Amino acid sequence: YSAYSESIVDDARRVANIYGSVPVIKTGLDLNKIQKIEPYNSNTPYIISARRLVYDKGLDILINAFSSVSKQFPDLKLLIAGEGEEEENLKKLTRDLRLQNKIEFIGTIPLEKLYAYMKGAIAHICPSRFEGGGNVNIEASACGCIPIGANIGGISEYIKDNETGLLFESENSNDLAQKIIKLLHNDG
C-alpha cells in the first residue's frame, strides 16, 4: 500500500482497518514543462478554481465568498474550470447572486491550458468539503499562483498556512472571502 497524503492513510485505517506502515508518496510535477508554458493574458485580474463540479468540491462556498470579494474588488473575475453534476446549480447560484458578468465557467481544459491560466491568475482556490490530498495546490504553486484551500483532509499537507498559501475554515465562505481579500490587499 501507499497513499498520497496522511489524510488518506487515516481514512483508510478508519474504513478498511488497515494496520502497519503505509508510506505517503506526494505526487510530482514536470516543472520543466510548466516553465515553458506562457501565462494566459487577461485584461482583468482573476482568480481560478479547477475542480470537478460536484458537491464535495465546494464551489458553492467559493461563489458565495466571491460575492463578498467582488464588492471590494469589482474588476476581479473568477474562472471555474471543470465539469460535473453541479454545473447547472452553480450557474444558477451565479445568476441569483448577479455575478454572471464576473464568473466564467470555462469547462474542462487541457492541463497545459490550465497551467497557462494558473500562471496568469492571482490565486487558485480549493474550497473542498473533502479532499484526500490536493495536488492542484502544488500545481498552482509551481505556476506562481498562490493556493488558497480549505483546512480539511490532506489539503493542509500541501498548503502551509501563511507560508506556501492560505488555509481557511472548511465550509466557511466568510473566512474564505477574508483570505482572498487579504491576499488581494497584499498583492496590490
**What value does the Rg take, in angstroms?**
16 Å
N-to-C SSE string, H for helix and E for strand: HHEHEHEHEHEHEH
Overall form: globular
| Residue share in helix | 40-55%
State the separation between the terminal residues, measured CA to CA. Answer: 46 Å
Discrete helix count: 8
- Please state how the strands of the largest beta sheet are arranged side by side: 1-2-3
Which structural class matches the secondary elements?
alpha/beta
Mean pLDDT: 90
How large a portion of the residues is in β-strands, by DSSP E?
5-15%
Count of β-strands: 6
For the biggest sheet, the summary is: 3 strands, parallel
Low-confidence stretches: none
Describe the secondary-structure layout.
Blueprint: H1 6-16, H2 31-36, E1 46-50, H3 59-72, E2 77-81, H4 87-96, E3 103-107, H5 111-120, E4 123-126, H6 135-142, E5 146-150, H7 155-158, E6 166-168, H8 173-187
Parallel strand pairs: 1-2, 2-3, 4-5, 5-6
Description:
This protein is an alpha/beta fold. It contains eight helices and six strands; from the N terminus they run ααβαβαβαβαβαβα. The chain has helices at residues 6-16, 31-36, 59-72, 87-96, 111-120, 135-142, 155-158, 173-187; strands at 46-50, 77-81, 103-107, 123-126, 146-150, 166-168. A three-stranded parallel β-sheet has the order 1-2-3, sandwiched between helices. Strands 4-5-6 form a three-stranded parallel β-sheet, sandwiched between helices. Helix 3 (59-72) packs across helix 8.
How would you sum up this structure in a few lines?
By secondary structure, the protein is an alpha/beta fold. Helices cover 41% and strands 14% of the residues.
